[in-house]
């Protein structure tokens, strides 16, 4: 897939006091820009300038300057980067293209000391490099949040389903109540008609009848009050039993969590702090080593002319003599050391540089180990914190349930007393009614008593009907939410699936991208018996603290073809320097595409390709040009001749 955005008209770059550059202004055109020249012609310094204005801090300030500056006009916007000397350090300020250049440093700025490019030669952790820009901790935290939210929605959906299952029974009860109410009303109307007929035929004492009716009304009200108190008491006892049961469950769960080692959490916090400090120290050391290595390599290339001038002033020869000594290319050539001023051989300088490179590699490996240990300790600490938080929540819940149990016990005791008092009042009213009825023994009084009982029963039925209809309405509203909850759950599930597969997807894309481009490049470059170079995404068990967990690893395979045509697997150590350089550059391109660096950073920079022959350099640049808006490649004149004549050449910087 072509991702190049060759839609711009060009980039104007203004540089002052960066690396070996005093002052220069260049224009880059979309596509490939070839910086042609011998060593010590500031090609690397110009590439560093582009890195600096993009947001990287892998650039050096000119040795005799207090301030350097890079300015770029790109797509109608102006970006700047200022380097200011502060004692032995250099501060970076301005308005660069990128707020964070970590991904570009890894996969777009493919200079000689580029970490992704060197990872192949040093057999570094390829998977760690690809995944370094991804905040896996934030992804895992978000996954935990979504899982908790999904579980809550699952509970609500189950409640909605349970509500739907209850509605048919309630509807059936509603129909039964309507029939019973209709029957009670008809019976009450018949009883009232009988009372009216009896009142018309019998001339009895109105006062006595009114007393009985009043007593019956009081009795009905008191019976209703007794029923209400009994119902409240039953509900309170049921709630109290539920509270006691939940309190037992909480106490049992809390007992299981009593073994949480808070002291262990304090120890792990100290470990996290120590490991973070160690990682920061290693980052600082690696940065310093990279700067030191880069400066010395530039000195060997003769780029820092001001230092060479100082050495020349102290020695017998001129600047040309010192430069010739440094660049003579013979093992026994000698020159003046730019740190102590003594006479040293090139072999000694190269050995020192090799030592520094080896130390840098060891520090990067140590940083990777410290990072793995830090992730393990943080994981254990988070697990303990979760258990401690859970225990505190349960303790608070246990206290709350205890208070609720005490309150409900008091309510049960109070309602029991009220029920006894109400039952006594009902008993007295029943005695009064019996006395009044005994004094009359008339059919009319019996009719009034029966009518009052029917009215009482009718009121109860109407109250129950109202409760049933209210409950049906609530359940129907809950059922109506089921589709909304299901849709929300599907959204959460999709986001969970995306998060859970994001890391795996990036890993898979990186491997597939590398393998596809490696196959295409090998076909073009024709490295003889190198049949295939590919990365295998494998799972392996590693130890995290006291646990064994599964981790993904990238395994680099090299397949060669023997003289008899038989394929066999070889190691990276047996590859030529040219082959290793090509593999490192393709790995950088894979990371560039997977992390879509081209969307934010317009530049891809290539340097130190001398180990690759000119025709293969040309084929490699032709392959890369499809994927970056602007490519700047530093080449020797003889290597540049093999590139397409249509590519822009820059010979003076």
UniProtKB/TrEMBL annotation:
Task: Give the signal peptide range.
Answer: none
Instruction: Cite the residue spans of the region called Disordered.
Output: 362-423
The UniProt keyword set, sorted, is:
Coiled coil
Positions with biased composition (Basic and acidic residues) = 378-396, 408-423
Q: Which InterPro entries match?
A: P-loop_NTPase (IPR027417)
Which parts pass through the membrane?
none
Task: Note the coiled coil stretches, chain numbering.
Answer: 136-263
Question: Has the keyword Iron-sulfur been applied to this entry?
Answer: no
NCBIfam families tied to this protein: ASRP
Kindly provide the name given to this protein in its UniProt entry. AAA family ATPase
């Amino acid at each position: 897939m072509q991702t190049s955005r060759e839609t711009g008209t060009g980039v104007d770059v203004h540089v002052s006091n960066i690396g070996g550059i005093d002052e220069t202004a260049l224009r880059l055109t979309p596509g490939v820009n070839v910086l042609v020249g011998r060593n010590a012609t500031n090609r690397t310094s110009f590439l560093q300038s582009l890195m600096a204005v993009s947001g990287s801090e892998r650039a050096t300030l000119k040795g005799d300057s207090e301030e350097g500056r890079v300015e770029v006009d790109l797509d109608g916007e102006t970006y700047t980067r200022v380097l200011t000397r502060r004692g032995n350090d250099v501060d970076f300020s301005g308005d660069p293209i990128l707020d964070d250049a970590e991904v570009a440093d890894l996969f777009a700025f493919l200079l000689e000391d580029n970490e992704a490019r060197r990872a192949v030669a040093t057999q570094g952790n390829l998977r760690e490099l690809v995944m370094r820009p991804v905040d896996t901790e934030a992804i895992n935290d978000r996954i935990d949040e979504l899982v908790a939210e999904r579980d809550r929605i699952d509970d609500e959906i189950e409640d909605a389903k349970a509500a739907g299952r209850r509605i048919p029974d309630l509807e059936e009860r509603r129909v039964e109540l309507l029939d019973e109410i209709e029957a009670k009303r008809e019976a009450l109307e018949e009883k009232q008609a009988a009372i009216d007929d009896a009142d018309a035929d019998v001339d009895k004492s109105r006062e006595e009848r009114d007393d009985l009716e009043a007593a019956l009304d009081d009795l009905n009200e008191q019976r209703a009050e007794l029923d209400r108190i009994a119902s409240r008491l039953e509900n309170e006892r049921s709630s109290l039993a539920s509270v006691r049961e939940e309190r037992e469950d909480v106490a049992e769960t809390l007992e299981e969590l009593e073994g949480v080692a808070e002291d262990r959490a304090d120890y792990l916090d100290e470990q996290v702090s120590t490991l973070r400090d160690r990682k920061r120290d290693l980052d600082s050391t690696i940065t310093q080593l990279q700067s030191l290595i880069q400066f010395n390599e530039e000195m060997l290339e003769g780029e820092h002319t001001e230092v060479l001038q100082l050495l020349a002033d102290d020695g017998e020869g001129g600047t040309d003599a010192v430069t010739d000594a440094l660049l003579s290319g013979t093992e026994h050539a000698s020159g003046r050391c730019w740190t102590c001023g003594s006479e040293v051989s090139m072999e000694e300088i190269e050995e020192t540089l090799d030592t520094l490179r080896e130390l840098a590699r060891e520090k990067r490996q140590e940083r990777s180990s410290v990072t793995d240990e830090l992730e393990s300790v943080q994981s254990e600490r988070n697990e303990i914190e979760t258990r401690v938080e859970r225990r505190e929540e349960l303790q608070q819940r246990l206290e709350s349930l205890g208070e609720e149990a005490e309150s409900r016990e008091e309510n049960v005791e109070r309602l029991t007393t009220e029920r006894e008092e109400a039952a006594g009042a009902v008993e007295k009213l029943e005695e009064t009614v019996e006395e009044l009825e005994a004094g009359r023994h008339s059919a009319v009084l019996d009719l009034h008593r029966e009518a009052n009982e029917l009215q009482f029963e009718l009121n109860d039925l109407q109250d129950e009907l109202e409760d049933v209809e209210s409950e049906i309405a609530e359940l129907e509203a809950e059922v109506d939410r089921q589709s909304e909850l299901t849709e929300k759950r599907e959204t959460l599930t999709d986001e969970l699936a995306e998060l859970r597969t994001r890391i795996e997807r990036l890993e898979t894309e990186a491997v597939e991208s590398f393998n596809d481009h490696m196959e295409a490049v090998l076909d073009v470059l024709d490295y003889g018996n190198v049949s295939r170079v590919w990365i295998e995404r494998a799972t392996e068990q590693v130890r995290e603290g006291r646990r064994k967990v599964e981790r993904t690893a990238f395994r680099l395979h090299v397949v060669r073809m023997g003289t008899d045509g038989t394929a066999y697997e070889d190691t990276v150590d047996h590859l030529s320097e040219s082959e290793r350089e090509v593999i490192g550059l393709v790995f950088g391109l894979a990371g560039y595409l997977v992390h879509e660096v081209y969307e934010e950073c317009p530049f891809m920079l290539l340097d130190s390709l001398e180990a690759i022959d000119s025709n293969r350099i040309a084929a490699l640049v032709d392959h890369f040009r499809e994927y970056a808006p602007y490519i700047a490649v530093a080449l020797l004149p003889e290597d540049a001749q093999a590139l397409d004549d249509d590519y822009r050449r820059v010979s003076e910087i």
